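I am writing to request your help with a piece of structural work I have in hand. Thank you for your consideration; the sequence and its tokens are set out here:
=====
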Amino acid sequence: MMNPLRLSLTASLLAVLLVGCSTPTSRAPTSAATPAERQQDAIAALLDEASRAQPIRAAELRTEAARKLIDANQRDQAIAILERIDTALLPPILRFDIATLKAGTALERQDSGQALRYLAEMPSSEPLPTAQAIELGELRAQAYQQQQDSTGELRELIKVAQLRQEPAMRQALHERIWALLGALPTDGLQRLASAGEASYYEQGWYELAINLRTSTDLAEQYSNLDAWRTLWQSHPALQQPPKAVAALFDSSIMPTRRIGLLLPQSGSLAKAASAISDGFMAAYYQAQREGRPVPEIQLLDSTLVNTPEQLLNLTRTMQLELIIGPLDKNYVNQLALTDTLPVPVLALNNSNIQAPGNLYQLGLAAEDEAEAAALRAWQDGNRRMLMMIPETDWGSRVGQAFVRKFESLGGQVVGAVTFAEQAGLADRVASLLNIDDNEARTKRVQQAIGNRIQSELQPRNDADALFLSALPVDARQIKPLLAFNYAADLPVYATSHLYNGSPNSLSDIDLNGILFCDLPWVIGPPSTLKLAMSQQREDTDTRFGRLYALGADAFTVHPYLEQLRASPLTRISGETGQLYLTEGSRIARDLPWARFDNGVPSLLTPASN
């Protein structure tokens, strides 16, 4: 039976809060008390003692009581006690305990703003022992993370890293710092570096990240890294760099002396291979004119050297240090199945097979554009997409890539149709927008009531935008059909297939408003290489001209394969995009975006991360 002298915890708290010097109640412990009741008694005893104690001791007792309440998941009562403590005259450690208890509770409730206000109760002028200073910084970083304030989180982690003495803990913090720097938009990073408000440690991190981010040419990147090392010899990012930066410091650019260019000289891929070879050699001769070292090139016919065994034997016989090619996907798949390759191979197509580490893959896969469209649509705030793709093998691959990427981001494809012939496009668009369902519903109502009714057709309202992959002749019909079916304002994201490569405002006026991605070679300002090739060829602005860009990038990227592997942040500005290495040794591309305005592509600024 409960002793009538037992005070409930609520009653005890009320008594302590309202009566500053109440007389403590006493009770002989009974064996019937549960652990929770004993915990309540302990808390009540602490509060009773606090009501009679001097201010500092009283604050200590109330803090201990609040900690027990938090352990008992009674956070509201704990905060009520802590907020009544006057911390103005308390020693720093006790003020720290109170602030962190309140902040930790706020963070558990996802109230990061309140947590930061609690932590601000700790004056920065009062020094704390290292362990407490670290905990305070980590709590602030957690609060900024909840607010998605990368800059605030970054600054706190840089401070905490200076306090950590254990190498493993500091390394982990450096990796987190580097990841946050990598996620910041370039303009935001530059604003931090130029604001003049950064500490020595912050400024060193900012400048290191900017050097790697803005040095699109790897030779320039190495030069900038050397300059950074000279200026920041005492910086912790040099003493204990993140793994990606350490790999760059440890690697070097090794000039390749002899390259085998493995492409078909006959057969169905010969014409494409010729264009790739022309782009490759154009980049080669440009480098030679600029005084850069160039390798010896050995031309190999992949229709004759058509097995991995033949290629490996020829590599040893001719003492080749790098193979560029093959182009044929089946050949690339065969190489991917090879256990070891004696030299690096830069294939000009992609394999879906897990490949050995030194088989690099550079291609113009349509799937890359689909993934870029999914990312751009998501960054623009679209969460529910429609999809319209051709009934072809490449259309299927594009559609699968878009769905896979968009769903991985958290989006949903709520409707999709395929199309095969232009004659059926109107029906396919109406079906995608559910217009045909609306018409059928109207007819059923008319039949039921025997009268004609007025029905304003409306497209489906569960989609934010449309992903489209179509050739120009189809795309020029699909966009007007969207308008005809009451979806003129539906944003459209498309692959490069809808653009021939040369502006034609009369033909492409019906594409107005469509956003699409394409190679810098096509929609960016023309490079020196493209201008030079345009003087000699008339097809640089056709879809076929994209193969020149691929060949040029194969030459541009070949000296830097090791560096691409060393740093995920590393980018190379190429004719086919901003090139970087993904897992599996596949070279991916960040592509520019354009929108059709008055029938002409207009280059857009990159979407923010």
